[in-house]
Amino acid sequence: MKAQPHIPALHDATQLSPVARFKRKDDPHWHWLENRDDPEVESFLEQANAESTACFAPLEPLVETLYAGHLARRELAVDGLRTPLDHHTYWSETAHDADYPIWWRHPNHDASQRECVLDVQARAQHHDFMEVADMAIAPDENWLAWTEDTNGDENFDLFLRVLPDGEPRRLLTDIGPELCCAEDNRSLLFTRYDDTQRPDSVWRLDIESGKSACLFRETDAEFWVGLGKTRSRAWLVLESASKDTSECHLIPAATPDTPPRCVRERVKGVEYGLEHRPGHFYILHNQDAPHFRLDIAAESTPGDWTPLLDHQEHLTLEGVDAFAWGLVITERDHREAQVHLSVVTLDTQTPIKRRLPLPEAPCSLILGDTPDFDTRRLRLHEESFILPPRWIEHDLDTDERRLLKAQPVHGDLAPEQLVCRRLWAEAHDGERIPVSVVARGDLIEQGPLPTLLYGYGAYGEVLDPWFSVARLELLSRGVAFAVAHVRGGGDRGEPWYLAGKLAHKENSFRDFLTARHALVANGVADAHRIAAYGASAGGLLVGASLNLEPDAFCAAVLDVPFVDVLRTMENPDLPLTTAEYSEWGNPNEPEAKRRIRDYSPLDNLVAQPYPTLFLQGSWHDSRVPYWEPAKLYARLTEIVSQLPAAERRPAGGRPILLRTDMAAGHGGASGRFKAWHDNARQDAFLLWALGLADNELPADRAD
């Protein structure tokens, strides 16, 4: 192992530690940090930031090297894919030195007449944070509306600009992120929050009169509302959904003042969504079909469903997109943990179904932005761990594939020099856990490598392969990158999700550790140099795994980690809490409370050596409040400081570091350069912990 650089002692001089300085003897769990209005809270976080900065000082040259390397590998000036609508073609351009894009358009048949639609870079000049969450173009393309957050707390303002040269006007404040235009060219649908920041209602704004009216309100605290429009542009769809139940309401898009019509009233545990072709609705649902099936209904009676595509044991149907000629079905193979797109041609005697080809496996394949209802040329987005993102146009008539755009990659490590492997690890109960690995092809056979293991595993979210330019900085230095596709995620379909939630949540943590051990057993990972990474609910995954086996990892990064699970779930006034009951359980039920308490990371800390940790939080985070990583930092610092010196500070030291971004929300920095620099700091920490921080050429190397 390479020698680690000296990092100042954090726990030997506790009188200088923010934890020792701010400790309150009457509050051993540090709950006082939840009081945002207490000035000592900001002082504590700022001093923890200062401590982190001081500890990173020896690594700053490496941080800057990683950051410069990332910039050198990436095409900094980026033009987005051009998308034609009825009258204009739209695209974004990000200048080489800009954090944010400028949106442009030109008439469909005259590319020389370009005009600016929205300059996000200019709007961000006077803000530390900027997020444009949604944009909506009027059907006649005479105005643009968008939602904008300048704090990171996910409270959005609504702006509108008359095109082509009108001044932006703020129409509403403190609304939800989603927007949708009706087909009358004057009605804009948006969502509002309740007191817990739950989107609980859908509203219609008349942009000519400025008056708004509530269309739908959801009173059940476990349900969130959302909105959309069918690709046929005939129907507005209002959805109210919990984690396991949904209900849809329809409004004719041309007459948005029509009262919403419920498609089928909610039934506990039944999820459904729909798409439309003239004359019919297509309903994707899981009633008596745990992996989902596709039904059809007459447009006049959308609640009367007739089977169209049968339920299958080895597939989960994940999505349906309708076109004039038929459907595109997104489906997931349970056995191979691979997504597929199938084209279903309708208006024939029997539906004709065929799969589109994969560029490789495993890979990510999704239907790209294809707004034209009549097109027979699909835009597909493809990427993998070793394939940079690219956009393909697939002609359904000829099966010809045309490359529209590909992300270029520069530098000394080309994607062709990487290899990707899929391991299958045997879990404690005999289940097969997929583990993806990517590394340099010239190193993978040479023996165990220092390894970063990434995990999520909640909400049924999938970790389909994704390419990362930043990751190349680790791979080029000999690190293997691995992903544990644990239960609780959706990587092997709906059964995979159900096997890692509620009473089965422990499977997620044990699967993550199983993946770690399989990497060692297969000769991929060096048992003494494995680091873990988890963000948000992935922070819960990693935090719980560290409590179970703290010696399994030499280090971990927990980014905005959800670690105070029980206390959060016991507070229904916090954002997300009530909506999460069907994911984690309702702690008002004794058995659910016991289960949550048994794995909640902050409730299971014990006096044992923990690996070195880098914890990251955000002051404006409304999903995982800043105090969750702050509490973990404070309590782990106390635990480590009370261990015998030999355990507390083995060779190289085991610091617990906290860094809180005081100008960001759940997703971290909004500007791309700051986000990339934050990533470089994180990677420098990982390289240090993996013993590779001194494996550097001089910082002033030219090539």
Tell me what the structure shows.
By secondary structure, the chain is α+β, with helices and mostly antiparallel strands. It is built from 14 helices and 37 strands. Strands 30-31-33-32-34-35-36-37 form an 8-stranded mixed beta sheet, sandwiched between helices. Strands 1, 2, 3, 4 and 5 form a 5-stranded antiparallel beta sheet that branches. The longest helix has 18 residues, at 39-56. The protein is globular, with a radius of gyration of 26 Å. Mean pLDDT is 94; it is low at 1-15 and 695-703. Belongs to the peptidase S9A family.
Mean pLDDT: 94
Secondary structure class reads alpha+beta
How large is the share of residues in beta strands? Answer: 25-35%
Helix content percent band: 10-25%
Q: How does the overall form come out from the CA principal axes?
A: globular
Low-confidence stretches: 1-15, 695-703
Radius of gyration: 26 Å
Widest sheet, order of strands: 30-31-33-32-34-35-36-37
Total helices: the number is 14
Question: What can be said about the biggest beta sheet?
Answer: 8 strands, mixed
Head-to-tail CA distance between termini: 27 Å
- Strand segment count: 37
